Amino acid sequence: MKWITRERPKIDRIACPWLIRRFIDAEAEIIFVPFEEVLTKADELGAIPFDLPQVEYTHYNDQCTFDYFIKKHGLKDAALNRIAAIVRGADTDRPDFAPQSAGLEALFSGLAYNIKDDLELLELGMTIYDGLYSWAKHLHQLKHTQAGPVEQMLLEVFHKYIKQSNSRKAPEWATELKEMIQDQLDTNMTLSLQQVSEELEINPTYLSREFSKYFDNLTFGDYIRKLRIEKAISLMTDSAYSLTEIAYLTGFSDQSHFNRIFKKQTGQNPSVYKKSILKSKAGTNR
Predict the structure, then answer these.
(1) Calpha distance 241→177 (Å, rounded)
(2) 156-194 CB burial, b ≥16 within 10 A, e <16
(3) Which of 127, 185, 207, 278 fits a 20 to 30 Å CA distance from 41?
């Protein structure tokens, strides 16, 4: 069986061929071609395209192509599910999915930078994913610090360092980022982690990892949503805007999304919350 995808693989397009060869078709041929040639070559070679838009084997919602392979082929394996979370986080810039995601992304970014031959990179990737699978299958519950007293001592030093680091002044990029986020809230513009990293000239993986240290122990997405809800409550209190208008002014794509996030943050639907505010204001005006 032949499988074809875009050239210059890094995360999903290395993980999926590994999954194919190890669990679906050991003799599978993996073909890498330029993006614009994938579908044409797929027809010519009788190959199945994957990891590009508008084909069956691709991303769905917040899941990546690796997830779809597991679902499509009914692969029931807890170790594969653990790897899927790591791959998903690395491939979609969401290290909150799994703590190992940032490391996987960094590793394959470096390898892709050094190795220009896609098939050579794939062969090395096969070995790396074999190791990752063994960890996910047999070793994921073990901690490196279980090895002995030396590692335990290093852990104690690490925690002392973290306590000292937390007392330090926030770095300049964190201050600048707070200003950018405030501008986003004031102007209703969209702001992604990728845009922020480019503006600040900071690696997105590093930024994603460090963000929570200076922003209420929240991820970038959760922090933005928290501020949007706080702004929505302010607009409910101080304006006559409808909930639909407030949803738009706080950057939500639609009313249902706004309702869902608002309830998650406050425990109440926005309509109920707004009524309680109006009732409270009416009581104070008597």
Answers:
(1) 29
(2) eeeeeeeeeeeeeeeeebbeebeeebeebbeeeeebebe
(3) 127
Long-range contacts for 55-63 (Cβ within 8 Å, ≥24 apart)? 57/16, 59/92, 62/88, 62/92, 62/94, 63/88
What is residue 169's DSSP assignment?
Answer: P
Do residues 226 and 265 make contact, with C-beta atoms less than 8 angstroms apart? yes
pLDDT at position 139, please?
83
What are the tokens at 160?
């002392």
Average pLDDT for the chain: 84
Residue 145 pLDDT: 47
Tens-place pLDDT, residues 219-257: 888 888 888 888 888 888 876 788 888 887 887 767 888
Q: In terms of pTM, does the model score above 0.90?
A: no
Query: What is the assigned CATH class of domain 172-280?
Result: mainly alpha
Tokens 């090895």 sit at which residue?
147
**What DSSP string runs through 49-106?**
EBSSTTSSBS-BTTB-HHHHHHHHTT---HHHHHHHHHHHHHHTT-GGG-TTHHHHHH
The count of C-alpha atoms lying within 13 angstroms of the C-alpha of 81, restricted to the half-sphere facing its C-beta, is 6
